[in-house]
């Protein structure tokens, strides 16, 4: 049984939401509309996660569930790039590139992955190559976000 | 008031095609409410020189001006995740209803429910003691399966609108996460008095996309203003809602000649740490603005703690007062201040 009162607390208190990212991301797959809405709201308001959450979020980026990928990408994109060491930054961006490359996957999730690469910044050569590759035939908004990611310093 | 405008400005409509009016057909997403409107249900005769407003005298809510038949209060309120859960919470929903009753129009953001009976049920509570509010509801918007709707809840005693006079912006370039809902309103005044007519633009930006949404907001406003003037000779256009940005982040939006925003320094979130919400218009054109505006503090209003106010929303309602009659240029000019400066 999902405690909607607790969920509302997550939406009201960003620090609580950040401490319970795993629960919130799993609730995105819930059939219960209120739970999913509160999880969305909490994730929208919670701000950037800690660097210690990166590995967990990277696992979630590989989820089959589009909304989970969308929010995991969003959360990764919120972490200031300068706080992430270079090897980790590359692994995040490569994982996000693999989301973008899934042509048949949910477009908003792919767009958010491109957005996140741009937010993190400093894509290396291999990431740039992949981004350029994805530009071909990309829908307009995705192409715009890919372009932003390519030009992100 | 009516401005002289350059019709050639239509050419500047590059970003949006604003010609698609939604909800004109019964059964559409925007319909189903105005068709059941209580508007015009009063059979009381209208006497020359009398305002039609049937507003009952109300006690002044702390922070709001004394209600007068000569003015209306327009508000914007992000009712955070307004869905079934809040609807079922009697304590919360009664307070939301009470907030709405303080205003003639409330632009609502974050209606989040598949069940489209949410607003009719809220209206039952608002109207339970004889008020006559109605609502306009926009389509479900958002890029993911979690959708939001904009709404306008308005007092039919004091203002008139129609589902035919509302539309959702067509964002062909897909620059905005949740395209604004525009609605035209007219104050209810006797036939021999010129009513204040205006168009409201309800917006909720995506906090993660503010950097891309805000820089185009001036084009959004410009496009709507041009469309409103060309299609309805309407020059009073008020952009309002949750911008997820303070005025220092407005950029080009804040540089539009004559532009004015009502919230400059007062925090609009419930924990009083950020400015998220605002109401923006051309102060020279919309000189029906009386100069009174502010943020309604829910803690003060209900005598509750911040923790409890957060149960209602993480946002506070923002509001502004306007006279009910269309003003000639300069009529209220003495009250005009520098753009972006609020008057308390």
Plain-language structure description:
The complex is a heterodimer of chains A (153) and B (344). Chain A has helices spanning 4-12, 14-19, 21-27, 33-45, 54-61, 66-78, 86-100, 107-120, 125-135, 140-151. By secondary structure, chain A is mostly helical. Chain A has two domains: 1-47, no CATH class; 48-153, Alpha Horseshoe (Leucine-rich Repeat Variant), CATH 1.25.10.10. In chain A, helix 3 crosses helix 4 and helix 9 (125-135) runs antiparallel to helix 10 (140-151). The longest helix of chain A is centred in the middle third of the chain and has 15 residues, at 86-100. Chain A is globular. Chain B is an alpha+beta fold and 344 residues long. Chain B has helices at residues 84-88, 90-100, 118-126, 210-232, 252-255, 298-302, 306-312, and strands at residues 71-82, 105-111, 133-137, 149-155, 159-160, 166-168, 181-187, 197-204, 237-242, 259-261, 277-282, 289-295, 318-323. In chain B, strand 8 (197-204), helix 4 and strand 9 form a beta-alpha-beta unit. Chain B is globular and about 45 Å long. Residues 1-52 and 333-339 of chain B have low confidence and may be disordered. Classes of the chains: A mainly alpha (153), B alpha+beta (344). At the A-B interface, helix 1, helix 4, helix 6 and helix 8 of A face loops of B.
Lay out the secondary structure.
The complex is a heterodimer of chains A (153) and B (344).
Chain A (H helix, E strand, L loop, with lengths): L3 H9 L1 H6 L1 H7 L5 H13 L8 H8 L4 H13 L7 H15 L6 H14 L4 H11 L4 H12 L2
Helix pairs in contact in A: 1-4, 3-4, 5-6, 6-8, 7-8, 7-9, 8-10, 9-10
Chain B lengths: L70 E12 L1 H5 L1 H11 L4 E7 L6 H9 L6 E5 L11 E7 L3 E2 L5 E3 L12 E7 L9 E8 L5 H23 L4 E6 L9 H4 L3 E3 L15 E6 L6 E7 L2 H5 L3 H7 L5 E6 L21
Parallel strand pairs in B: 1-2, 8-9
Antiparallel strand pairs in B: 1-13, 2-4, 3-4, 5-7, 6-7, 7-8, 9-11, 10-11, 12-13
Helix pairs in contact in B: 2-3
Overall geometric form of chain B = globular
Number of β-strand runs of chain B: 13
Instruction: Let me know the average pLDDT of chain B.
Output: 83
Estimated helix fraction of chain A: over 70%
CATH class of the largest domain in chain A: Mainly Alpha
| Estimated share of beta-strand residues of chain B | 15-25%
Label the CATH architecture of the largest domain in chain A: Alpha Horseshoe
Alpha-carbon Rg of chain B, integer:
19 Å
**Oligomer kind:** heterodimer
The number of distinct β-strands of chain A equals 0
N-to-C SSE string of chain A, H for helix and E for strand: HHHHHHHHHH
Distance between the termini of chain B: 24 Å
């Amino acid at each position: 049984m999902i405690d909607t009162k607790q969920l509302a607390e997550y939406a009201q208190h960003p620090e609580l939401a950040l401490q319970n990212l795993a629960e919130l991301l799993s609730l995105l797959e819930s059939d219960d509309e209120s739970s999913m809405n509160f999880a969305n709201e909490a994730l929208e308001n919670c701000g950037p996660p800690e660097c210690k959450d990166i590995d967990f979020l990277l696992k979630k980026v590989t989820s089959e569930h589009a909304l989970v990928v969308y929010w995991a990408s969003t959360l990764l994109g919120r972490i200031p790039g300068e706080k992430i060491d270079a090897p980790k930054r590359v692994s995040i961006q490569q994982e996000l590139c693999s989301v973008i490359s899934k042509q048949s996957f949910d477009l908003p999730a792919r767009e958010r992955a491109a957005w996140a690469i741009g937010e993190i910044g400093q894509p290396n050569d291999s990431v740039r190559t992949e981004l350029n590759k994805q530009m071909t035939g990309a829908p307009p908004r995705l192409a715009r976000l890919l372009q932003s990611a390519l030009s992100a310093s | 008031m009516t401005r002289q405008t350059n019709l050639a400005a239509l050419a500047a409509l590059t970003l949006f095609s604003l010609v698609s009016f939604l909800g004109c057909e019964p059964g559409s997403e925007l319909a189903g409410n105005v068709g059941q409107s209580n508007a015009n249900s009063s059979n009381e005769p209208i006497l020359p020189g009398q305002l039609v407003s049937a507003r009952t005298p109300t006690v002044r809510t702390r922070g709001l001006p004394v209600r007068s038949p000569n003015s209306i209060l327009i508000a914007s309120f992000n009712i955070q995740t307004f869905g079934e859960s809040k609807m079922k919470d009697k304590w919360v929903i009664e307070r939301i209803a009470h907030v709405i009753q303080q205003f003639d129009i409330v632009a609502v953001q974050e209606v989040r429910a598949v069940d489209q009976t949410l607003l009719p049920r809220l209206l039952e509570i608002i109207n339970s003691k004889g008020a006559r509010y109605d609502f306009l509801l926009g389509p479900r918007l958002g890029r993911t399966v979690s959708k939001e709707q904009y709404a306008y809840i308005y007092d039919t005693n004091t203002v008139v609108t129609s589902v035919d006079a509302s539309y959702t912006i067509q964002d062909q370039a897909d620059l905005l996460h949740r395209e604004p809902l525009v609605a035209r309103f007219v104050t209810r005044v006797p036939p021999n008095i010129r009513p204040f007519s205006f168009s409201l633009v309800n917006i909720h930006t995506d906090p993660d996309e503010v950097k891309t949404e805000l820089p185009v907001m001036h084009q959004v406003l410009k496009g709507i203003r041009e469309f409103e003037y060309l299609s309805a000779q309407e020059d009073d256009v008020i952009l309002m809602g949750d911008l997820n940005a303070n005025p220092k982040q407005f950029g080009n939006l804040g540089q539009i000649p004559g532009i004015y925003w009502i919230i400059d320094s007062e925090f609009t979130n419930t924990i009083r740490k950020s400015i998220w919400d605002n109401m923006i218009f051309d102060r020279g054109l919309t000189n029906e603005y009386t100069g009174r505006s502010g943020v309604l503090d829910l803690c003060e209003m209900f005598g509750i703690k911040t923790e409890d106010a957060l149960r209602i929303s993480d946002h506070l309602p923002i509001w502004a007062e306007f006279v009910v009659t269309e003003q000639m240029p300069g009529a209220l000019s003495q009250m005009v201040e520098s753009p972006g400066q609020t008057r308390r």
